[in-house]
Amino acid sequence: MVVRMVDTSDDIVVLTPDEVRHAIDVEARGRMGISGDEFIARWLRSDLPDTLAAREIGIIARLLDLTPYGSG
Amino acid sequence: MPDTRFGAFRDTLNRTINKTVSRDRLTVVPHTVDPTRAVIVAVVQGSHQVFRAIRLGNGHYLSVRMDVHLIPDGVSTDANSIAYRQSEETRGDDWIFRYEYERLQAESGTYPYPVAHWHVNATPAAYAGARPFPELHLPTGRLSLEDIIRHLIVEHAVPTLCPRADALAFLDEQRNTFQHRRTDPGRPASVAEA
To answer: In this predicted complex, what is the ipTM?
Structure first.
């Protein structure tokens, strides 16, 4: 599945929650070998390794209506 | 449409990047629910790899991700990650250093590390700690994107898009603007509230 951008301009991209979750899933599988759902569950428990991948994906997760921050 | 303050902040960052080390651009991705929040990141539209890094003239990459929110007269950063890496292949472990800023988590009182810190992807021969050295949070002050790009030009020989002296002078000018707009508690005492 290719992520669909619902509204795009040169420098603004609006993503739906499902699209953000899909993007997280793609990155988490590719970079950490876990699903997006597992990433988010562990991120909410602050139970992720202190890696660049976890940090960068965690910042994307902040686009969702969730609270915690995940990893250092 | 997202608040224009996000666009102004993005444009400032893009001006810094596009006048010095890369023609790639950062994008505003608004929060899915909260209109006062957004993430600033480089995006590949319509790709499986949605987010990407900025390509530099030496073939290396700068990966920038910022979690920001609106304040009355601009945008403030809650967290960021700025990483210098050898390749765009994010699955690899070829990052060289990364700077991170974590204001929100630090304010929660449960964050044991420095609000602003470096990770370095190396291990000194004399290091004997239990935790892998690249995972250590090496304390630093609040840095701007300009500080990091300046470091890349001066010490990593990253090529500039204009004469090197002009790029460095521009970065210094932009950095001074950043210092005067900082809204975090650690800002210099002489700087007015943004």
So the answer is: 0.88
